[in-house]
Amino acid sequence: MNEDYQQARLRLLLQRWQQQGTLAMPRYATGPGNRLSDVAGVKVGHSTLADGDIQTGVTAILPSGGNLFTHPLPCGVAVLNGFAKPAGLVQIAELGRLQTPILLGNTLSVGTLFTTLARHAIEHNPELGRTLPTVNPLVLECNDGWLNNIQAMAVTEALARQALDHAGQDFARGSVGAGRGMSCFGLKGGIGTASRFCPQLQATLGVLVLANFGTLSSLTLDGVQVGPAIEPLLPGLAPQVDAGSVIIVMATDAPLDSRQLVRIAKRAGAGLGRLGSYWGHGSGDIAAAFSTCQQPDPPEDSLLESLLAAAADATEHAVLDALLTAEPVSGFRGHYRPSLRQVLDRLAANVNL
């Protein structure tokens, strides 16, 4: 691919950004809000700490309004690269059931978030761990230690409970909740979301990401490798290797069983690859997918085609959403991450459109 062609594609991408405020166009129809909560019953909440060296938070995903301990949901997990410290994946891999809401946070907050979910389950099931079995909380994490003083362990049970208690269908994205201190492709990362409607099954698939991964030189937008064009504009930018991690949570109202949900979750990798990620050595890249149908009558696998494609497409666009909605953040030791919006505007000013 010659340099003139690359420049022409870059100009077209930047023209679209200036005229429409968009980058990659969805390949398939979106849900009504283009977010995880387009799947009925699913809610998201955040609690955020933004104070000097402390730039962190918690994001809660509530799959339903019911008692998940007594009425678990089908769930599947795909570990794309396992450099990660989650809680709850082993039992989900074994039994294929989600027993609690999902909490996202930073790496050193996993124990606190686990305890929060255990207490939450006990409140609704007083005999838990006594006459009833124990519970399997699902906690997923990324390392926000570049922008956040992670050793301060500032995430508390009260903060996590706030995220659970304030979850709703409408929720913020970008530099909020667990995404507050996250970096993505050397820029500001965080929380992003997208959804797709799958006519083959008359079902919706929603995706939420915690984006904290990628090298700037690899960043690819709508098939255009823009990282090399951006790097000269940010000579003082601290580099990021593809080692920070990404969490992808998928929800669907399609009546899938846990095995089929694993297949859907794996397709998150295709979406990450379109953006230029290769799941680096030190990255914890994990996708979890659940169905809101508690007792599914699963369709034939041949009917999953639209959901497989939607999972890749929505993952790509959820990461883009995180990049485009994130605000720039300064934090621990004065470390700074600019927003992609800032960079695109500067790039457009430097490219002959």
UniProtKB/TrEMBL annotation:
<dbReference type="InterPro" id="IPR016117">
    <property type="entry name" value="ArgJ-like_dom_sf"/>
</dbReference>
<dbReference type="InterPro" id="IPR005321">
    <property type="entry name" value="Peptidase_S58_DmpA"/>
</dbReference>
<dbReference type="GO" id="GO:0004177">
    <property type="term" value="F:aminopeptidase activity"/>
</dbReference>
<dbReference type="Pfam" id="PF03576">
    <property type="entry name" value="Peptidase_S58"/>
</dbReference>
<comment type="similarity">
    <text>Belongs to the peptidase S58 family.</text>
</comment>
<protein>
    <submittedName>
        <fullName>D-aminopeptidase</fullName>
    </submittedName>
</protein>
<keyword id="KW-0645">Protease</keyword>
<keyword id="KW-0378">Hydrolase</keyword>
<keyword id="KW-0031">Aminopeptidase</keyword>
